UniProtKB/TrEMBL annotation:
Statement: the UniProt record of this protein carries the keyword RNA-binding: no
Membrane-spanning segments: 12-33, 45-64, 70-92, 112-132, 138-158, 165-185
Signal sequence residues: none
Gene that this polypeptide is encoded by: mntP
Organism of origin: Paenibacillus glycanilyticus
Name of the molecule in the record: Putative manganese efflux pump MntP
């Protein structure tokens, strides 16, 4: 396998993961958008979510480097199990109907908690990617871009569509992470 093929594969994997992680922001954004949101608030909230989608995986990547040094070859199995658990939790949460829609996203604390809650999955995936020595800059830029983009799309779409679409986005993201978890294990 050539070096260019390896980089293209890593890039495609990172994009798919970034979109999967952005599904959480997308689905919860739909819920908030359904209640009505001003465009200024869409931009503010999405920018903060994008920032958190940069910071959380960055912290996770550094934690993953540390764990990888401790675990050695067991790191691949641990990373796969982590993705399986995370994907399963996302699917379970979407089916159960867990949501943070009751918090006031317009307050500073509400905005912080909302952005943190939709970005926490990025930390766990960052740990996994840190174990595999993924390109840090590319990872955080893609995660930040797609986290912000997916939240904008969810918030704007929520202004226009029915509530039923929200849970499916998070379930789809969870399924993608489950598949990657299985690929890492097997």
């Amino acid at each position: 396998m050539t070096d260019a093929t390896l980089h293209a594969g890593q890039f495609a994997t990172l994009i798919i993961m970034a979109v999967a992680l952005g599904m959480d922001a997308f689905s919860l954004g739909i819920g908030i958008g359904l209640k009505g949101i001003r465009l200024r608030d869409v931009l503010r909230l999405s920018s903060i979510i994008a920032l958190f989608h940069v910071l959380m995986p960055l912290g996770g990547i550094y934690a993953g480097h540390f764990v990888s040094g401790l675990l050695g070859h067991v790191a691949t199995m641990a990373a796969g199990v982590l993705l399986l658990l995370l994907g399963g939790h996302m699917i379970y949460s979407s089916l159960k109907g867990d949501s943070v829609q009751t918090m006031d996203y317009r307050s500073s604390i509400g905005t912080f908690l909302f952005a943190f809650s939709v970005s926490i999955d990025s930390f766990s995936v960052g740990v996994t990617l840190g174990m595999f020595e993924a390109d840090i800059l590319l990872t955080v830029l893609l995660f930040g871009f797609f986290g912000g983009l997916m939240s904008v799309l969810g918030l704007l779409l929520g202004r226009r569509v029915s509530e039923n679409l929200g849970g499916y986005g998070e379930a789809l993201g969870g399924t993608i992470l489950l598949i990657f978890g299985l690929l890492f294990i097997f």
